């Protein structure tokens, strides 16, 4: 079977450069010998062409009929949902998310487009009476212009969707760069968008490395705003460059999300919440719980049951229906997980189970979920984002100590608590510095129609998703008129 070579989408067409030296092979982490598709990397010139096309298309798109935008977004959402099985399998093959979870991600992507199809038609604007006689004031929002969208690999279709959909909805044109590990879902999404009736240049997609294509996007004077999701270190670089160019930024970065388990928790519920939040999607979620803070009265029972459930998880091929935990995304991330397991042991934590590579003929990046106890708050496995299924359990005395431990981090994305105490749950909801707080639910797993984002080193700029996305994708205009 011949493997297709695909390319970037610029100014209304997929552009083949014919440069055989710049080929990216998309490999399956469940079977790294398998090349799913090949992609031609964009260079500086094509990046500039995409940005110029988006700039040219921006004025007309900003004035476009909202019904046109609504119909286009609806078309995209419908097609994603209609092709959910096929897209979920593609996602599982390129990223390693198991099919069940991949289906959830594809649905989320489709529904995000359909949500913003409705949002395009929402009446908005405010009228005020002036403090000056016979003067009327109108306040309304206008598109930002050209949006640079830079996405990570761990949600290959949902994150692009929840950025592209509001960008287009609010009248912006887009230059989108997916992560190099997941070009297939990005290409499939671009192909659907290419048939949605958008004028040429409104949407562009560039396949290529962050250090060249991504860097050109963030430096370009023709990009008005950047919506980025990825690591904290890349986010910091982007923030600095964007500040030089006076660009608006929205950065969603890492996390070290805590889950508190109190003595009064339902044990089975606590274990289920911990297991799902920490290990599902191979722990490769920015909202995954990687620190569990457990009070002394339930600690030993909780750890014993969590270890039992963790050992029973099946790690394997993302396409197999019996798999609970798919492979780690690539060899670099696998190496990172193994290194942190070594660091955890060296620093004196106890590895209760997992933390090993499962050797296999295909060379798949299978890694058993790791559970550490006897963790101290200064240990690296407790403080640093690992981005894998490596969990550090900290024992504390009571809720007050648990709360202080949960807050002891530079990050602030998601935080959870499992308790039957209304008082502690309410205190936690009100006082946690995280942007998203979960009570008796996993730290990972959020809705698509409400704000998403964090605080501290996890996020910068206004919230993504829901109606709040308007804040980033538009600017506010205030007009005064003498009657
Ligand atoms: P990454 O920072 O390595 O890459 C993210 C994107 O930035 C990629 O498209 C990459 O090509 C691009 N990039 C890299 N260097 C660049 C540069 N100098 N200029 C412009 N673009 C550049 O992150 P990753 O490894 O793809 O993703 C994992 C990280 O993403 C984790 O830290 C995770 O916590 C975070 N994440 C956060 C959220 C959130 O909403 N907070 C969601 C998902 C993932």
UniProtKB/TrEMBL annotation:
Alphabetical list of SUPFAM superfamilies matching this protein: ALDH-like (SSF53720)
Signal sequence coordinates: none
Active site per the UniProt annotation: 252
Keywords: Oxidoreductase
InterPro entries: Ald_DH/histidinol_DH (IPR016161), Ald_DH_C (IPR016163), Ald_DH_CS_CYS (IPR016160), Ald_DH_CS_GLU (IPR029510), Ald_DH_N (IPR016162), Aldehyde_DH_dom (IPR015590)
Domain of life of the organism encoding this protein: Bacteria
Residues annotated as domain Aldehyde dehydrogenase: 24-478
Entry similarity comment: Belongs to the aldehyde dehydrogenase family.
Identification of the protein by name: Aldehyde dehydrogenase family protein
Species of the source: Pseudomonas urmiensis
Phylogenetic lineage: Bacteria, Pseudomonadati, Pseudomonadota, Gammaproteobacteria, Pseudomonadales
